[in-house]
From TrEMBL:
PANTHER family: OLFACTORY RECEPTOR 51M1, OLFACTORY RECEPTOR 56B1-RELATED. This is Olfactory receptor. The keyword Membrane applies. PROSITE patterns: G_PROTEIN_RECEP_F1_1, G_PROTEIN_RECEP_F1_2. It comes from Saguinus oedipus. Belongs to the G-protein coupled receptor 1 family. It is found in: Cell membrane; Membrane. Keywords: Cell membrane, G-protein coupled receptor, Membrane, Olfaction, Receptor, Sensory transduction, Transducer, Transmembrane, Transmembrane helix. It is a multi-pass membrane protein. Residues 53-304 form the G-protein coupled receptors family 1 profile domain. The chain crosses the membrane at residues 38-61, 73-99, 111-132, 153-175, 209-233, 254-277, 283-303.
């Protein structure tokens, strides 16, 4: 496979290491080095939209008292998670583009993969809680204020914050105990556990099984529960008397449903590629990983700005205040 790509001398040096190395080489875009400056443009655009868009959502919710409700508290948590996911990949990706810095110390790689996987699990948890919020709002509207209380929201937020890191810590720490031989090259611009574990030249059965269990009992379980929530929502909406009521009821879920699809479809695709596509071209792995990590944080603020009426009104009001203040 390496014959079709042209790597730097640093890559060749690292590829010949036959014992544990404290550094990895992030090849990022093998075979596309000649057009790397063009690839930088969409990545820079995605980072700008993701970081500025999610910050803007947080500012809008913070400065508008009408949005201080459980639904928008969850949206704030989603925006914070998307920010964390974007910032986790920013140092190495921009380091490759700006400074041609491909090497990463093993400890830094561990920290980065811990952040990436933790924020991914956190986003899955937030989307699950948001689906429960929509389920209660549509299926039990008269009991919404009783069921969805501030205290329960705090508890749910704490579960979201701690579930991902607690599940990720063991597999990340265990990587330190493995010897790494042969090629220590990663084909992404960031560290992912499922790629680093393949470089270990020892038995990694525990890490593989534990990682699979974590995915099944977090992401996959969340996806099943979200699907069940929408099953109950669709049943309730179908029982409404008029088509107008059905449309209005389901409109409240449109933004969340789009966010669920944008997050889970690339994640499932990436998992399938890593599990069953070992002989797939590296470009497929690169594409799926980049879509999974960069697209949801970029699209979520756009989706909620377009699909949520209250957010649209708050944005128009906020921009109006900026315009008025600039005139004085």
């Amino acid at each position: 496979m390496s014959a079709q790509y042209s790597f730097s001398p640093q890559f060749m040096l690292l590829s010949n290491i036959t014992q544990f190395s404290p550094m990895f080489y992030l090849s990022s875009f093998p075979g596309l080095e000649a057009i790397k400056h063009w690839i930088f443009i969409p990545f820079f655009f995605m980072y700008m939209v993701a970081i500025s868009g999610n910050c803007f959502i947080l500012i809008i919710i913070k400065t508008n008292p009408r949005l201080h409700t459980p639904m928008y508290s969850l949206l704030s948590l989603l925006a914070l998670t998307d920010l964390g996911l974007s910032v986790s990949t920013l140092p190495t990706t921009m380091g490759i583009f700006w400074f041609n810095s491909h090497s990463i110390y093993f400890g830094a790689c561990q920290i980065q993969m811990f952040c990436i996987h933790s924020f991914s699990f956190m986003e899955s948890s937030v989307l699950l809680i948001m689906s429960f919020d929509r389920f209660v709002a549509i299926c039990h509207p008269l009991r919404y204020s009783v069921i969805v209380t501030g205290q329960r929201m705090v508890r749910a937020g704490l579960i979201v914050i701690f579930r991902g890191p607690v599940a990720t810590i063991p597999i990340v720490l265990l990587l330190k105990a493995f010897p790494y031989c042969g090629s220590v090259v990663l084909f992404h611009s960031f560290c992912l556990h499922q790629e680093v574990i393949q470089l270990a030249c020892t038995d990694t059965t525990f890490n593989n099984l534990y990682g699979l269990m974590v995915v099944v009992f977090t992401v996959m379980l969340d996806l099943v529960l979200i699907a069940l929530s929408y099953g109950f929502i669709l049943h309730t909406v179908a029982a409404l008397a008029s088509p107008e009521e059905q449309r209005r009821a389901f409109q409240t879920c449109t933004a969340h449903l789009c966010a669920v699809l944008v997050f889970f479809v690339p994640m499932v695709g990436l998992s399938l590629v890593h599990r069953f596509g070992k002989h797939a071209p590296p470009a497929i792995h690169l594409l799926m990983a980049n879509v999974y990590l960069f697209v949801p944080p970029m699209l979520n603020p756009i989706i909620y700005s377009i699909k949520t009426k209250e957010i649209r009104r708050a944005i128009i009001k906020f921009l109006g205040l900026i315009e008025v203040s600039s005139e004085f």
